Amino acid sequence: MRKLIILLFIFVGGSIGFNNFTDLLDSLPPMSIPTIIYNPWLGMVLGAGIFFIVSLFIVDPILKGLKRLTRFLTDLSLSYLLCGSLGLVFGLIISWLINFSLQTFNIPLLNEVVSAVITFTLAYVGFYIGTSYHQEVADFLKNQQDRRKDQEPDQAGETGHFLKYKVLDTSVIIDGRILGIIRSGFLEGVFVISKYVLQELQYIADSPDSLKRSHGRRGLDILNELQDDDQIQVEMDDQDFEDEAEVDLKLVRLAQNLKGAVITNDYNLNKVAQFQQVPVLNINELANQVKPAIIPGEEMRVTIVKKGTERQQGVAYLENGTMVVVEDGKHYINQSLDVVVTSSLQTNAGRMIFADIADPANVGDPEFGQDQSPADS
């Protein structure tokens, strides 16, 4: 900056010397001036040299003044500078219009002195008025921005209350289905992995229990696949909530800070998040909702795999994992039966279907004897 100011002084001095040196010589009393001196290029050299010497003495005060001006301007708000600049420009435009009309009077004093006074006065008045209303302008702009933010959820609501950030918990990562759901395009946005979830997965992967260890390693593999997929946005989060002891509460706080949702299979975390009014996406609930509807009176073929708990019940499972409770099916374990649906029950654990044997007379003999029917039991 120092060199730039000195170069600027040299340039200005050279320009003044080049344009005014010969005029200065003409204004001197008549004398014999050599032709070699009567040269504008000599004037340029003299002017540049004089201004260079002057710059060496005043460059430091100029730099100090610029630093003070910079500190002063940085302390001012953007709205103050913007409103002041607009007011200044508006004042200069008005002063130019007034001065232009005053030139028709052709009065030298009026054109020079009064025009300068009008220009300075209106420029100052414009700057003062602009800065006086800078706070109102800042509040207005902030209110407009807040209003747009408030309208965003309403606009998103037309397409399903889109939430950009989804916080994944440990259970949903170990479950593994989240990877296929994301890749299928049913979930969009940024999927956030907290450092606490990563620590839990590492702890489970190092467990002496072989089953837990396999679950933990599966979860880490799922995380790696999520990060390696270029079509999926994954972010690691290092936020620390020291006032919360449990990981579930930390995840809820994280979702609150991000204004996002929690994706989980954990029943307790689901309830805690709902209590804190944090949106929850439960993979089990999604799985239950996408299961095909079962209508009473519908027939299906199932295989009894174990005994039920009441009234000679037998238990079977559909391919999607739905439990089917068959009345009087206790004695037909490992046999395939045609059953008729009587009712269904939706629970947090999943769907249960209750059914009766379609045609007991045509069903094979029970496992305990050829001469005894289910009704006799």
TrEMBL record:
Keywords, comma-separated and alphabetical: Hydrolase, Magnesium, Membrane, Nuclease, Transmembrane, Transmembrane helix
Entry superkingdom: Bacteria
Entries under InterPro entries matching the protein: Nucleic_acid_metab_PIN/TRAM, PIN-like_dom_sf, PIN_dom, TRAM_dom
Cofactor(s), by name: Mg(2+)
Transmembrane segment boundaries: 41-59, 80-101, 113-133
Domain TRAM stretches: 293-359
Annotated signal peptide: none
Molecular functions per Gene Ontology: hydrolase activity; nuclease activity
Name of the protein in its database record: TRAM domain-containing protein
